[in-house]
Every structure is written in structure tokens, then in C-alpha cells.
Write a structure and sequence with these properties.
The protein has helices at 20-38, 54-63, 67-84, 98-113, 167-176, 184-195, 224-229, 231-234, 243-248, 261-274, 306-313, 315-325, 336-366, 378-399, 403-424, 426-429, 436-460, 462-471; strands spanning 4-13, 42-50, 91-94, 117-127, 132-134, 152-161, 181-182, 201-202, 204-205, 213-214, 217-222, 253-257, 283-286, 289-291, 294-295, 332-334. Helix 12 (315-325) packs across helix 15 (403-424), helix 14 (378-399) runs antiparallel to helix 15 and helix 15 packs antiparallel against helix 17. The strands form four sheets. A six-stranded parallel β-sheet has the order 3-2-1-12-13-7, sandwiched between helices. A four-stranded antiparallel β-sheet has the order 5-4-6-8, with helices on one face. Strands 9-11-10 form a three-stranded antiparallel β-sheet. The chain has a domain at 336-482: Isoleucyl-tRNA Synthetase, Domain 1. Strand 10 and strand 11 (217-222) form a beta hairpin. The chain is built from 18 helices and 16 strands. The protein binds 5'-O-[(L-methionyl)-sulphamoyl]adenosine (MSP). Residues 10-13, 21-22, 24-25, 50, 228-229, 231, 256-257, 259-260, 288-289, 296 line the site of 5'-O-[(L-methionyl)-sulphamoyl]adenosine (MSP).
């Protein structure tokens, strides 16, 4: 019986077109998904678009479209990018879909019926870009404390969610589940925030209409974050609690950026508690990308467009760079120079050269046919042990979502391979007919180690892994039962590899 795994990305607002910040979360979710699938899990990977709310309504007005026209247009751009980035999602949810609206109305009514949503009056500040309410004491000079843009005073009738009631239960949950919020520094921030006291939360609006109506009071639309967060269960068929919901909920991990942690680690769990539903197992907040040292923004015209990067450098180079360059959970800086450096040194030089050298040698010495190895020497055994250790390390690092460490562990074996060639000097062995068996063994170790490298790389760089494995004569998709040493068979035909990643020589502006 296969184990299930449920991973989600945030659903992206449709008032903006996709940039590397969005691509980053989705890519991380994809790599985790592919890795878990490799290890034999049945994975449900959810992404989608957040299409309601004032921000989207305003953007649509500005573009002279209806909100739905805007959403239809922009969500296609997200889907096209995910295709180009080889994102293997299981489902794409749009908050304007019937299945979603039905689930949101249901959970809202359920919480209202049991007394945790009540009608009141609201007088506070609202930041539309963040879709967030602030109190008098939180705003600074009429500006949003998060994004520093102007806030508006709102006074309206509103439904409130009794979030205050769940303060202690939430703290107890965070306490009892040390891995619930990650990384740790972020967990501490949330704990302090909750300890300062949770106020009841306004969960409806009357000043605009683009949203899901409050059941029984159509003057109100449901607060966009209440609507959006619920996507994680409506995509599983909620309120139907059989089927996918029973199989996959609670989520194994919600992957998000650090700016939306409070919504996921405070609001969402308390909504679920009120609805009597289990909480997600983990919320992981990653850091933010700056670009050449600066905050990415439309006004600075420095928004990095993933389509352009992929066209220029190739999809797997971009996938590799984003997850290798910065430890997941920390902020990072994007620069073309750093990307080109990674391509030339890690991909062209280390990974590509190793494959070229090995596949060329076996063709030269054994007509491309894998031979049965003799007994391993100490050097061979050390190389084999390092390869086997890599499989275990990657497993442990992926458990922590330490993508860059997992890639480092793989690259240690790639480097060890290049060193192994230098040490064993196959060209010298080839000159001595009595060393034929020894030469065959060296070739075997080199190819078998790389087979395991490409098995693991299939999560990160699916196309490169498929190419590498094709050169290595491996038929079929990589799977967990092929993750042990010694499965490359005698007689397998190895093809001389073309460079996987040509060096990039051009000067980058
Ligand atoms: N719609 C909400 C999420 C609702 S989830 C129930 C939203 N959408 S968003 O489109 O504005 O942002 C989506 C994600 O992109 C967030 O996780 C955010 O952290 C991420 N990023 C946006 N800019 C980013 C960077 N510059 N760097 C890294 N991630 C960034 O918020």
C-alpha cells in the first residue's frame, strides 16, 4: 500500500503576472513531489489562483475588464509557466470555481452555526495591497506596517470570527508540535505574535462585491483570506469528507513565502479548529528573492521573468539554480552572474564532464558495453560508499526541505567521480592488457555511481536526469527499488554523451 503525501503552494493573485518569487514556491513543491513519488508515495500536489477580493477587482477595473476576464487571462499565464517549468501538479484550483465556492460557503456556515462567526461592526484600517486589517495602534503615519503603503479607514458592518477564543489552543498546538511551523526562527515570531493576544477577525466585507457571498446575507462577501485558505480543502472535495479529503487531509506541508506566514500559521489553523477539522502537519515559510541586491518591484523594472530565464538558460539550469543557490528558508539574491557561474561550474564542468568522460571511455575501451566488475579495491569501495551515503543524506535533507543541502550531497559524489577518474587513471590501465578486468571495474563504478546520481536528480532536473539515464542505458523511470548499488547490468549499452550543459561564454549585461 502506498503512503500518501499532500503538498500545496499558495494560490497566486491574478492581479500580477508570474515572476521568480512565484516560480520558486511552485518549483520547491514540484521537487518535493517528484522526490516523494520517486520514493513510492502517492502525492497530491495542489496549486492554483486566488481570484477574489478588492485587489483583483481594482486591477480588473483599471484594465477595463471584468474580474473574471482578468482572472481567465492571468491564470493561463500561470498555467503556461508551470508547463514550461515542468511542474507536475495534480490539480489547479481557481477560487472562482463552483467546487471551491460551495466548500467556502459550507465551512463559513458551519462556523457561524456553532457560534464562532457573529455579526458586528468594524472600524479599522485596511491595506488593500496586503488585503489586511490593522488597528489604530498598528498603523504608522497612515501607512501599512507590513508594506508601508497607505491604508484606508473602513467602517462597516462585518462578520467576525472569534479568533480570540482559539489563542490558547493554538499556542498549545504549536508547543506540542515543534515542527508545525518552520523554520524555527519563524516559529518564534508566530509564538510572540499569538502571545500578544489574538483579536476577533473581520471575515466579511460590504464595500465591494467581488467575492463569495456570506450565506444568508448577500450584502456581504467573505474575506478574501478566509476564501483563499479554504482552497486547501475544497480542492480535496470538502465538504465531502470522503474521497480525496479522507485520503490526503491533513496536508503534509503548506509551502509559502514568509510574508504570508501569519495567515497560514494563525488564521488558517484557528478556522480549522472552529470547523472541527485536523490541522496541517507543517507550514514552511521560505525567504524572499531580491534581484541584483534590490527588492523586486514593478517600479524598479527589475522583475525577473521566469519565461525569459528558461528561454535563455534552459529549464533545468533555472530549476537547479533556484534551489541550489539559497538555503530554503533564507532570503537570497538573484543575479545573472551567479546563475551563469553555477551553470558553467556545477553543470557543465562537474556534472556534464563526468558523464562525457565516462561514456566516452567505456565506448573506447569496451565498445560501450557494461562489464561485470571484479572485486572492488579500497578506492572503489570508498567511492561506492560515498554514493550510497548520498542516497541516505538526500533522504534526510529532503525530510527537512533542505533542497540546497540535498544538491550539495549529490555534487559531492559528482566531484568524487571526477577525482576517482584522476586517481584510477583508466587511460593507463587501458595500455596494459592484464589490467582489463581492473579497467572494467573502474568503468562499472563510474557508471553505477552516476546512475544513482541521475536517479536522485530526477526530482530536481527531470529532463537532465532522463537524458543522463538514457546515455547510461537505463530503461524505464527511476524508482525507489532502483536506489541501491549494483543494478547496472552487464551488457548494457552506454551511449557516448553529448554535453548536457554547454558552457555559457557570453558577457552578461
Ligand atoms: N494569494 C495570496 C496567497 C493565498 S494562499 C491561500 C498571495 N499571493 S501572491 O501572488 O501575492 O504571492 C504568492 C507567493 O509568492 C507568496 O508565497 C510570496 O511569498 C511569494 N513571493 C512573492 N514575491 C516573492 C519574492 N520576491 N521572493 C520569493 N517569494 C515571493 O500572497
Amino acid at each position: 500500500m502506498s503512503r500518501t503525501f499532500y503538498v500545496t503552494t499558495p494560490i497566486y493573485y491574478v492581479n500580477d503576472v508570474p515572476h521568480i518569487g512565484h516560480a520558486y514556491t511552485t518549483l520547491a513543491a514540484d521537487v518535493l513531489t517528484r522526490y516523494k513519488r520517486l520514493m513510492g508515495h502517492e502525492v497530491f500536489f495542489l496549486t492554483g489562483t486566488d481570484e477574489h477580493g478588492q485587489k483583483v477587482e481594482k486591477a480588473a477595473n483599471a484594465a477595463g475588464e471584468t474580474p473574471l476576464e482578468l482572472a481567465d487571462r492571468v491564470m493561463k499565464r500561470f498555467q503556461a509557466l508551470w508547463e514550461k517549468l515542468d511542474i507536475s501538479y495534480s490539480d489547479f484550483i481557481r477560487t472562482t470555481q463552483e467546487r471551491h465556492k460551495r466548500g467556502v460557503s459550507h465551512i463559513f456556515s458551519k462556523i457561524m452555526e456553532q457560534g464562532d462567526i457573529y455579526l458586528g461592526e468594524y472600524e479599522d484600517w485596511y491595506c488593500t495591497p496586503c488585503e489586511t486589517f490593522w488597528t489604530e495602534t498598528q498603523v504608522i503615519d497612515n501607512k501599512c506596517p507590513d508594506c508601508n503603503r497607505p491604508v484606508e479607514k473602513l467602517k462597516e458592518e462585518s462578520y467576525f470570527f472569534r479568533m480570540s477564543k482559539y489563542q490558547e489552543a493554538l499556542l498549545a498546538h504549536i508547543e506540542a508540535n515543534p515542527d508545525f511551523i518552520q523554520p524555527k526562527s519563524k516559529r518564534n515570531e508566530i509564538v510572540s505574535f499569538v502571545k500578544e493576544g489574538l483579536r476577533d477577525l473581520s471575515v466579511s466585507r460590504t464595500s465591494f462585491t467581488w467575492g463569495i457571498p456570506v450565506p444568508g446575507n448577500e450584502k456581504h462577501v467573505i474575506y478574501v483570506w478566509f476564501d483563499a485558505l479554504t482552497n486547501y480543502i475544497t480542492a480535496l472535495g470538502y465538504p465531502d469528507e470522503a474521497g480525496d479529503f479522507a485520503r490526503f487531509w491533513p496536508a503534509d506541508v503548506h509551502l509559502i513565502g514568509k510574508d504570508i506566514l501569519r495567515f497560514h500559521a494563525v488564521y488558517w489553523p484557528t478556522f480549522l479548529m472552529a470547523a472541527g477539522l485536523p490541522l496541517p502537519k507543517k507550514v514552511f515559510a521560505h525567504g524572499w528573492w531580491t534581484v541584483e541586491g534590490q527588492k523586486m518591484s514593478k517600479s524598479l523594472q527589475n522583475v525577473v521573468e521566469p519565461n525569459m530565464l528558461i528561454d535563455r538558460y534552459g529549464v533545468d539550469a533555472v530549476r537547479y539554480f533556484l534551489l541550489r543557490e539559497v538555503p530554503f528558508g533564507l532570503d537570497g539574491d538573484f543575479s545573472h552572474a551567479a546563475l551563469v557561474h553555477r551553470i558553467n561550474s556545477d553543470l557543465a564542468n562537474d556534472l556534464g564532464n563526468l558523464l562525457n568522460r565516462s561514456t566516452a571511455m567505456i565506448n573506447k575501451y569496451f565498445d560501450g558495453l557494461v562489464q561485470t566488475p571484479e572485486e572492488l579495491t579500497e578506492t572503489d569501495s570508498a567511492y561506492r560508499a560515498k554514493t550510497e551515503e548520498m542516497v541516505r543524506q538526500v533522504e534526510a535533507f529532503m525530510e527537512e526541505l533542505a533542497f540546497s543541502k540535498a544538491l550539495q550531497a549529490i555534487w559531492e559524489v559528482v566531484s568524487a567521480g571526477n577525482k576517482y577518474i584522476d586517481e584510477t587513471a583508466p587511460w593507463t590501465l587501458a595500455k596494459d592488457p592484464s589490467q582489463k578486468g581492473r579497467l572494467a571495474t573502474v568503468m562499472y563504478c563510474l557508471l553505477e555511481s552516476q546512475r544513482l546520481v541521475y536517479f536522485l536528480l530526477s526530482a530536481f532536473m527531470p529532463r537532465t536526469a532522463a537524458k543522463g539515464l538514457a546515455y547510461l542505458g537505463w530503461e524505464g523511470a527511476p524508482a525507489a527499488d532502483g536506489l541501491s548499488w549494483g543494478m547496472l547490468r552487464e551488457g548494457t549499452r552506454i551511449t557516448k554523451a553529448e554535453p548536457l550543459f554547454p558552457r555559457i561564454e557570453d558577457k552578461i549585461e
